[in-house]
Amino acid sequence: MELGIFASMNQTIEENVAIQIATRHGCELEIHHRGEQNEQGGQAKPKVEKPDDDDPKFLKPRPPVVCILGHVDHGKTTLLDTIRKANVVGGEAGGITQHIGAYQIEHKDHKITFIDTPGHAAFSMMRERGANVTDVSILVIAADDAFKPQTDEALKFAREANNAIIVAINKIDVKGANIDRVKQQMQEKGIAPEDWGGETIAVEVSALKGTNIDDLLDMILLQVEVLELKANPSCPASGTIIESQIEQGRGATATVIVERGTLQKGDALLCGEVYCKVKTMTDADGNVLKSAPPATPVKITGWSDVPASGTKFNTEKNEKIAKRNAEENMQVRKLHDAARAQQKSTEGGAATIEDLFAAIENQQKKCLRVIVKSDVHGSTEALVHALQAIESDKVDLSVISKGVGHITKNDVTLASAGGAMIVGFNVKLDNGVQSLAKHHDIRIIQHAIIYELIDQVVDGMADLLDPEYTEKKTGAAEVRQVFSVGKTRNVAGCMVTEGTIKRNGIARLVRNGETIHESKIDTLKRFKDDVKEVRAGYECGINVAGYDDYQEGDTIECFAVEEQRPSL
Ligand SMILES: Nc1nc2c(ncn2[C@@H]2O[C@H](COP(=O)(O)OP(=O)(O)OP(=O)(O)O)[C@@H](O)[C@H]2O)c(=O)[nH]1
Ligand SMILES: [Mg+2]
Q1: Probe ligand 1: pick from 68, 89, 144, 379, max atoms within 8 Å of CB?
Q2: Helix, strand or coil for residue 38?
Q3: In testing the pocket of ligand 1, which one of 145, 151, 208 has its CB within 8 Å of the most ligand atoms?
Q4: pTM score, two decimals?
Q5: What percent of the chain has pLDDT over 90?
């Protein structure tokens, strides 16, 4: 009360007030925020000696994780469909894969985990993520198409991730298949096939016909034998999030790959800023799993929110601790964000003149603001990335919000407040969204195929620009005689020499090579009649608006103005 603050015993007071009071009473008050301890290295927490889970005596052989990589349409999903006797390809929008998928199969009593990745250029992060969680990369190359940009990119990711590489030369059944060309290129790229004196296993397959698929699987097992893959199955589980989403009736779900330990129902997981008490575990076909040992891909429900794909998770003692740690991680991130924003604003204070001009120019530049929603975390990431890569000198694109799941009323409200458009990839609209969007005049564009959606956004950006006009010469006429009409006005009696002269066209009066006057063609007459146009070889009378002083030998050029859709 002496400080002018009236607070009851149980009320929370400001930090600085608390410090003042403590000082008055001879105490030193040290305040720690949640998360700060971690940031300072967590020195406040005593370290507990933990047994080394990776002690060789705990390690047991585990199945390999194999990533299928390659250029779009080279047959990755078909290959996996044939191996799994499934039909994923049949249900894909636009015939391309736009998600990462994880499956486990058994071949000759050995389990193999496969990860299917999209080949379309926009999903480069998914490919990289795929390569990063795997031991072996299968580079699928269509024999009728050979190496392509995403084949090269996939090879790069596989090398960077230190994966063993096996090449599947696919589509050998196709007319025009040229296996030697692929092998030649393999040699050029430093992965010469064995039969060309190199060390890379290359298997010639037809995913569609099922040719040599067993050989490919045998080769994977052979390669894996060399790698001696092991993990401890009895420690608390940890691994990587492959993909995550929101599913109706199930909340946030995530497909993960267990890397160490065995995941059990009821486990408490921590993954960055989200946590999970594992409610259900299912495989790719929806079968319920009781436990998931190392190298198993499983879909888990029970998440507090959608975890980011590609992040690692680990098991905590219980849900309470997992929750607390997730909150602390969020706190740390917020502190970092605030610090970064602060730094940015102080940096901004010392702007140069050039920066200032650039800023002004940017302000004048139009900007399309978008809210991005898509079905899974990875595709939100891919879409945002692709949208931000759209280059234009005239229009900027700003992603004001991004998320996973259906388009909600909240998104519409946000779009309305932020003057934004909603871009939905592979998602539906919640009930009532359509009418709310109509009411607020919010544009929602949706598509299930990423490149179609990106094209629509590009169109949306171009829509912001004012239309461009171009002039097109339609014809010319020569003044042969000048008539006076009534007392004051003159009309040019002309012969059309090229093209057509059109009424309401733009007229340019040229005398001795110089433009004397420019305005509209007011009157166009054939004899006594008003006409719309006169073609070359015919005589006509022309009156150019606001001009009277025609001379014989003048040329009247006629132009039409065409509106053109502006381009970025
Ligand atoms: N003839 C022939 N066609 C094949 C073969 N493998 C795949 N295809 C066809 O090639 C097309 C593309 O196959 P997908 O399996 O979707 O290719 P993908 O590599 O998964 O494509 P993305 O995931 O979009 O990168 C489909 O029409 C397949 O039927 C093959 O061995 N022979
Ligand atoms: Mg595919």
Answers
A1: 89
A2: helix
A3: 208
A4: 0.76
A5: 53
